[in-house]
Design goal:
The structure holds 2 protein chains of 2 kinds. Chain A is an alpha+beta fold. Chain A has a single domain, classed as L,D-transpeptidase catalytic domain-like (Beta Barrel), CATH 2.40.440. Chain A is built from 4 helices and 9 strands; from the N terminus they run ααβββββββαβαβ. A 9-stranded mixed β-sheet of chain A has the order 3-2-1-9-5-6-7-8-4. Chain A is globular. Chain B has a 5-stranded mixed β-sheet with strand order 3-2-1-15-7, with helices on one face. Chain B has a 4-stranded mixed β-sheet with strand order 8-11-12-14, covered by helices on one side. The chains are: A alpha+beta, B alpha+beta. At the A-B interface, α1, α2, β3, β4 and α3 of A face α1, α2, α3 and β5 of B.
Chain lengths: 213, 211
């Protein structure tokens, strides 16, 4: 910290960066130390990921956006309609997606005489749960207006899973048995789009909001 | 019957869950997570601002300085960008995601996905000739030829092809009506004009980011 303070005083900014370069989080209020602290932590994580040739996700709860990124560049942005979660204090560091949502693939039949349908975004699930390493449960669900039954099912199974976790922790007597949990509500097509873009082992960082939403 | 009961139960639980505040016994409030943040007027806050700007600048410097290709396989678009500027937005066709059994191998299959991740242009070809792989014959119910010459097919890949490894190419197509759809065996198809632009705007080593 002292080193950074000294550097801040004696060093001018090196070669000039474009204004856009410094807009890593355009919504960031630089006068909000908590938000700045969180953005800085995320940037530290991102720097490690962006140094490698692979895509990663930034789940930006402050800007309510999921960003698919590579080399620090935004490849695609998915708006988050709503979010809920627990154990935010443990949502730091890099998480890796254990497995992408399952895809039902069609098999090519060489004896078929007509063209076979390829898979498309519409074949992807809009309600799914992703497990991560280290443990984090990320549930994606569509908005209630677009898919009410799927939304109810998703909320129900999620709540039931939590109840089971609490019961298990009470029985075993462990103090911190439940993994951090994040539920993201996306529009149906964006939930499907996210499912499409995920790959096994994909890294993910979370920028937490400093507001109580 | 069991499915119906399960669904009704889940629905009831879901409605209940929706009305309850979301918290677990050990959850901290969001505000509590950030209670160690420095005072806005303190030197520590100014140091933090400097650190943030430095990191943002370092991150920006990891982006390619030259034009790069971005392929959106979900929406079947290929972009050429320089920094945040879009130089080309082309409708493409990418992998169909279908599978084909490899004959006589039990469980082995070909999966016709466009690979995701970061690649680079490894080769730039003009007037490419397609060397038909085994699957091209098998999916049509044909016998795989033993003579290599019988695999050659010219005029189907367009005027240019850009290889990005493991037999995957960005190339042209005769089936322009299928652009915008996931129909390929993993390659990325473009119309003639867009293919020419991609050929002209890129070089060997140009990054290709596919998601």
């Amino acid at each position: 910290m002292i080193l950074w303070a000294v550097l801040a005083l004696i060093l001018p900014l090196g070669h000039p960066a474009r204004a856009a370069d410094l807009d890593a989080f355009p919504d960031l209020d630089p006068n909000n130390p908590a938000a700045l602290q969180e953005a800085t932590r995320v940037l530290e994580e991102e720097l490690k990921l962006a140094a490698k040739p692979r895509a990663y996700l930034v789940v930006d709860l402050a800007a309510m956006t999921i960003r698919i990124k590579d080399r620090g560049l935004d490849l695609y942005r998915i708006p988050i309609a709503a979010q809920r979660g627990s154990m935010y204090e443990q949502m730091t560091g890099v998480f890796r997606i254990a497995a992408r949502p399952p895809v039902v693939r069609r098999k090519v039949d060489p004896s078929a005489t007509t063209d076979q349908e390829p898979i498309s975004l519409a074949d992807m699930p809009s309600s799914y749960r992703l497990s991560m390493t280290p443990p984090l449960s990320l549930t994606v669900m569509p908005t209630v207006g677009e898919a009410p039954l799927e939304w109810i099912w998703s909320r129900g199974t999620h709540w039931w899973r939590q109840v089971k976790g609490w019961i298990k922790s009470i029985i075993s007597g462990s103090s911190s048995p439940v993994e951090p949990d994040l539920q993201l509500t996306l529009s149906q097509d964006q939930a499907q789009s996210l499912a499409w873009s995920l790959v096994d082992g994909m890294p993910l960082v979370i920028r937490r909001s400093t507001d109580n939403r | 019957m069991i499915q119906t009961i399960r669904f009704v139960l889940a629905a009831v639980v879901g409605l209940l869950a929706a009305t309850l505040p979301h918290s677990s016994p050990i959850a901290l409030s969001v505000a509590a997570v950030f209670e160690d943040a420095p005072d806005p007027e303190s030197p520590a806050a100014r140091t933090l601002q400097y650190r943030y700007k430095t990191l943002a600048k370092q991150l920006a410097q990891l982006a390619p300085a030259q034009p790069y290709i971005v392929v959106d396989t979900a929406r079947n678009h290929l972009y050429i960008r320089r920094h945040d500027e879009v130089l080309l937005d082309a409708i493409a066709s990418t992998g169909s995601g279908t599978i084909l059994d490899k004959p006589g191998t039990g469980k082995d299959q070909w999966v016709f996905d466009t690979p995701r991740g970061e690649f680079v242009v490894q080769s730039k070809l003009t007037n490419p000739v397609w060397v038909k792989p085994d699957w091209a014959f098998i999916e049509e119910g044909l016998v795989v030829p033993k003579n290599q010459a019988e695999r050659m097919e010219s005029g189907v890949l367009g005027d240019y092809a850009l290889g990005f490894g493991k037999g995957y190419f960005i190339h042209g197509t005769l089936y322009t009506r299928l652009l915008g759809k996931n129909v390929t065996h993993g390659c990325i198809r473009l119309n003639d004009q867009d293919l020419k632009s991609v050929y002209q705007l890129t070089r060997v080593g140009t990054p290709i980011m596919i998601f």
